[in-house]
Specification:
Blueprint (H helix, E strand, L loop, with lengths): L4 E6 L5 H15 L3 E5 L5 H11 L7 H25 L3 E5 L2 H11 L4 H12 L6 E6 L2 H11 L10 H17 L4 E5 L4 H19 L1
Parallel strand pairs: 1-3, 1-4, 2-3, 4-5
Bound molecules: thymidine-5'-phosphate (TMP).
């Protein structure tokens, strides 16, 4: 069985963290070797970049923002993702290149091609084997996020920004049907978890 690379994507408040903590418990109980990580973050450098990108700094040019996400990703690849896959562990990440395509390529208007090219350099062209998209109306997602804590620099963007992100992810899912699994994230967390669990366990066992 080869180690698989899985990503979870979605807009703000779409329930990625809840889903991922339940998947973590599932794989721990099953004693399946899986490394969980997140972007930006997952390494010391990634965490430092995350601090500056997400906290309340006022201004980043769109290109600087895209480069910082890509830098965090390059470090994440070299330090954690590739070594884990090479040692036979599955890797499940909270966001990957598709987040840059949706947020920087589309919502920040840098263009899909430019952001894809930049990221293919950062990742040596590695894409996830499977991507779960938690799709949700951003109005619902943002109100969920707001009920938890003060919104961060990106969450505070206009609703139209978040709508563009939702549409961008939906287009990406149509462009890559071979790896995308679309999940209706307006369902209860148990239902979302149940759907992902069933698909993922089936996917991993089909290969082994
Ligand atoms: P998180 O809230 O899922 O932890 O993600 C952090 C924020 O960074 C979120 O608002 C999405 C944004 N982001 C990008 O704009 N581009 C990226 O490449 C990544 C990974 C995240």
């Amino acid at each position: 069985m080869s180690a698989k690379f899985i990503s979870v994507e979605g807009g703000e408040g779409s329930g990625k963290s809840t889903l991922l903590s339940r998947l973590k418990k599932l794989f721990e109980d099953k004693k399946v070797p899986v490394v969980f990580s997140f972007e930006p973050g997952g390494t010391e450098l990634g965490k430092e970049i995350r601090e500056s990108l997400i906290k309340n700094r006022n201004f980043f040019s769109a290109r600087a923002e895209a480069l910082l996400y890509a830098a965090a990703r390059a470090q994440h690849m070299d330090e954690l993702i590739i070594p884990s896959l090479q040692s036979g562990k599955h890797v499940i990440v909270d966001r990957f290149v598709d987040a840059s395509l949706a947020y920087q390529g589309v919502a920040r208007k840098l263009g899909l091609k430019r952001v894809r090219d930049l990221n293919e350099w950062a990742t040596n062209g590695l894409y996830p084997d499977r991507t779960y998209l938690l799709d949700l109306d951003p109005q619902i997602g943002l109100s969920r996020a707001k009920s938890r804590q003060a919104l961060d620099r990106i969450e505070r963007e206009a609703l139209s920004f978040h709508q563009q992100i939702r549409n961008a992810y939906l287009s990406l899912s149509k462009m890559h049907p071979e790896r995308y699994v679309l999940i209706d994230a307006s369902q209860k967390p148990d239902e979302v978890f149940g759907l992902v669990q069933k698909d993922l366990l089936g996917y991993l066992s089909a290969d082994g």
